[in-house]
Amino acid sequence: MIRPRSFAPLVVALALAVPACVVGNGSPPSSGAPTATRTSMSVVPAAPTFDDPIDVVFDPSGMMWVGNYRSSTLVGFRPADLRGVSGSATVEPSVTLTGLHGPNQLLFDEKGALWVASYDDDSIRAYPPSALSSSGTAKASIVIRGSHIAEPTDLAFDGRGSLWVANQGTGDVVSFAAQQLEASGRPRPRTVLHPFPNEEEPPEALAFDGQGRLWVSDYNLDVVLRFGPGQLERSGTPSPSLRLRLPDLSGPIGLTFDTRDRLWVAEATGSALAVFPSGAHGQPSPEFTVTGDALQMPHTIVFGRDASVWVPCYDNTVLRYGAADLGGTQHPKPTLILS
Questions:
Q1: 5-44 pLDDT per residue, tens
Q2: Nearest CA-CA partner of 333 in 293, 288, 273, 274
Q3: Which of 15, 30, 93, 248 is the most buried (most CB within 10 A)?
Q4: Residue 147 domain boundaries
Q5: How many domains does the chain have?
Q6: So what's the pLDDT on residue 331?
């Protein structure tokens, strides 16, 4: 998958750059403080709440779920857990689920089941509401596999309830009709698209706009393609109706549309959020771009019920921006930094 593989060198570089230290509570010593010495006592640090948080999603009750790729966990926060919390904070999740097989993207369907792109297991998994009610090992009710699902990086439902899957392992975007998702198995995709046939690059993120058009990003090429509804009816290598070229080293890793049908792009390499106007054509420029010290390698963009904007970042934080804070300044400060 592009996300962890491209970020792996960064992890190594950070590990080499940070001096090793051992203190009683596992935190680094403050400036000027003496270095602690190793003792014979073994200290086991608590598992972090976030460990490469890859996506955020809200269920029908308003509970916020965060998928952690590196630890293969899913953590859930009830509305009451986050009520009144602001600034930099650590909040204990109400539910922690393990064994998610490298979750990449999360998506709730109309019945309240959570669909997960399991990158490490080459599968798509559905978890019913009952499986999300308490902590423990996650138990999927439906598992979809097959030769067309390989290192899935994103999921999106279209207006007919078909599930679209971006696959890094094959370079394809495939769709499954709603009736093919009613039980576990190896169904044959309804549609198989090759969005980047000449560049030999895999798709990264998917999103449908309000007109039913599918948008597909490529992380390495720094582009986002748009395909019309008619181009999604049959398999093949359709020519995009729009090819949105982003600045070099943007790394478009997440795509989202807001209620005004504006395209929001999470640019991981560029550590920015770019917002493009509805009805974009030609080579549009963003309406505005969000950057800032707290926005480090964002993974995706999700809107809360109150129009707040939530962004999971590679530095193991989840940011919340108020709707009124975005668009007026390029460097807004998050109202909440969860870690």
A1: 334 334 433 333 333 332 222 323 233 332 232 233 333 3
A2: 293
A3: 93
A4: 49-338
A5: 1
A6: 87
